[in-house]
# Entry
Amino acid sequence: MKFISTRGVNEQGVKSAYAIKNGLASDGGLYMPESIPALSLDTLQELRTLTYNERCAKILSMFLDDYSYEELLEDASLAYSEEKFGKNPTPITKLSDKVFMLELWHGPTAAFKDMALQIMPRLFVRALKKCGEEKTALILVATSGDTGKAALEGYKNIPGTKIKVFYPTDGVSAVQKMQMQSQEGENVSVTGIVGNFDDAQSGVKEIFSDPGIKEALERENTFLSSANSINWGRLVPQIVYYVSAYVDLVNKGEILMGEKIDVCVPTGNFGNIFACYIAKMMGVPYEKLVCASNKNKVLTDFLASGTYDKNREFYKTNSPSMDILISSNLERLLFLALGANKCREYMSSLAKDGRYTVSAEDMKLIKESFVGYYADEEDVLKTIKEVYENKNCLVDTHTAVALHSVNAYMDENKAERKIIAVSTASPYKFASDVLFALTSEKADNDFSALCELQNATSVQIPGPLQSIDKRSILHKAVIDKNCMARVTLNFAKD
Ligand SMILES: *Cc1c(COP(=O)(O)O)cnc(C)c1O
# Structure
């Protein structure tokens, strides 16, 4: 299978290993498989008796045909081991006769990004070998919280790689900061910067585009790479759990094989929900994909009006991992639905004017599969309380955005179909807001919120977050943003 750019310039395409090694296509577009492999109901039947890791190897091998099934099975087994994810990496909780919750946060950092970032480094290292790349890959990440920690856990001690994470020292929660500062591993480095997330991100972008740094790194036999969600290697593992969840619901006797159901995904960069769309295109009987946004509802507005417009106020909300105004992976949907030429036009008007409008005719295609809803911060707090009191189920703020949207969608559409709501983080990852939703009281600080929430609910703090305040700090450094390049070079020389 070949991978081509969403902007259509490198028509010939590259093998999947190159797409994973390169991250971004040379014309600035994102890599997509040139066709979507089909998954028949018979094949879905066959998946019923397989483990998650076997399902994973099977689905991945349909896209990554330059990797062997055995390689993929080995990677999946190491990525989703019982030690890291418990017995079942993707459990489903039944909330009512019609609503099921797919929990994707049982990995080492308690957020769904582990699902991709535990296996992607393994796919990446194999990609280096397959491409004959002998230099060390230095993974450079700017983070506003969750991605940094998940990338550190994924890349730690992975041979042939080093990882450097920059975070805004006053722009992440105390728990997130401690998670990163206590990171263990031979090949990891974490540095705070004085400034906000945008400063960290611009600093990283400058390093990526500086030819002098590239040369200096080459002298150290090193090259830069990124771990963000526009890399195909991060997207493809996410398709697996959408296939697997459907099969699990059949196995539980909740749906019949072939029965159409809906899915609701709390969305920021449009990566997670897009993976669900690919599963649908492959043949998994998903009907509507409900795109759930927070107050930064640029996607809700796009799906309603056809106009994508990032020129608007940016809100910092209680679901911070979805505080995004440019949903990068939407480009992949435009490409699939409308083709490379239109996709390229829209992306250039997004870059120039910050907006674009898709014609009503073209929106019809997109609306066949997608519908948009959103939840503001009050909706989130109310939903957390309701779901806890009525269903005895404790959910985080991002999951609450999805559950609120599920209710609104089902009410408005008198929905007949069953629906999966995707749960993307442990409630303890955002303990202060969850505690506030339940008790209307603010905790003294982020750390005490963990214990207070446990006392209030008797739901156990997950392993990765237990005694987080007692960890030893291994990465103390905080630097001026102008020093990021020098610090990166020094780390490469280490
Ligand atoms: C990253 C993240 C999201 C958004 O996922 P996208 O793939 O960017 O749409 C939602 N919830 C949590 C907890 C996240 O960390």
